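Per your request, structure below.
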């Protein structure tokens, strides 16, 4: 299986990625081994989609990184994003 996954980063943006081993990839994000997310931890896994074909997962990830894909994703995950948003600490 191939997975397209969504992480809600600490600054409120959503990171979309793809992997054939979802658990390993999430662990890499958690330990700071992924450059695009290492400075925006902690994060929350919002969800993932599973695909049998790698090409389908790649096509979906590519679409979700477009302006239209981001807009569609925000519509579909609006409530989940709002409920899981990390609120900054006010000092």
């Amino acid at each position: 299986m191939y997975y397209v996954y969504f992480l809600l980063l600490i600054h409120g943006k959503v990171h979309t990625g793809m992997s054939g081993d979802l658990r390993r990839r999430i662990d890499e994000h958690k330990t700071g081994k992924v450059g695009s997310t290492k400075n925006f931890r902690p994060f929350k896994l919002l969800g993932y989609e599973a695909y049998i074909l790698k090409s389908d997962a790649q096509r979906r990830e590519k679409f979700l990184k477009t302006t239209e894909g981001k807009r569609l994703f925000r519509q579909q995950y609006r409530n989940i994003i709002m409920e899981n948003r990390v609120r900054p600490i006010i000092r």
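The beta strands are 2-8, 14-19, 44-51.

Regards,
D.
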